[in-house]
Amino acid sequence: MMTWKKEAAVRFITCGAMILLAILLICCGEKPSANTGESDSDTDTDSDTDSDTDSDSDTDSDTDSDSDSDGDAAGTIRLREIDVIDWIQPAGLGAELGPSVPAIGFEILAEKDGALTVLMGTLDGDSQNTCNPTLEMTGTIDDTGYFELGPEDFPALISYTFNDENGDEQIFVTDAYIYDMLITGTFNEERTEFTGERTDGLGGVVDIREIAELFSGTFDNPNPDDICTQMSEIYTGVSCAACPTDNEAYCLTLKAWRVGGVEADISFEEISDFGAGCLEK
Description:
By secondary structure, this protein is of the alpha+beta class. The chain has helices at residues 2-28, 94-97, 208-211, 224-234; strands at residues 76-79, 87-89, 104-112, 115-124, 127-128, 135-141, 146-163, 169-187, 193-195, 201-207, 241-242, 249-257, 261-263.
């Protein structure tokens, strides 16, 4: 009888010890870490959540991956008035046709990675000529500032002024294109002016069919065929050549050298077509 009681007591003590041990493990044991691969919450040394040591991947204040501040270059440039003697093509005739080309200016929109973009328009004194459409032109520019804009087809109001037989001034205005217009020069570092050397300047192609009306002071009934014939007879080496639009022989190439440009306090607005009433002069 006593033996059974001793065995029961031993069993009771053993069970109690096991229960006590389980309680101690639950209450006092360490909880396992949720991240078993590292001792902290991240592996970097900066204040962001990625694995690098800086806040972004570039060195400037913009959001792209280059090293400049942006791609914009503000400023408006007006081409200097071209001297008659600087219209070198067509030989002899350029000096007569050149003054009919409107005053041209452009606003620099962007310059980046060797590319230059401008908004091209024409001027009326110190303001934009709102009768003339604008054209966004692209080109190239190198580290020296030398640039080439175009060639592109530029819409322009072309005028011709002459005195009639009574001595009265007459002005003819027509809308036309300067085809394959190209402007070249060398900018200063600030992009406030550019210079043109003897090989730099303004060039383009005009279609006699579009500007025949301007020859009203020379011909009673001007038509493209008569104009081309007369020009070839009067000016040595001048003849109408194939046009870039349809390959018909009614076009002349105009070129002026030593063309330069200076900064102008003018802001261009985009204009899509010729203004109403602009040809009524």
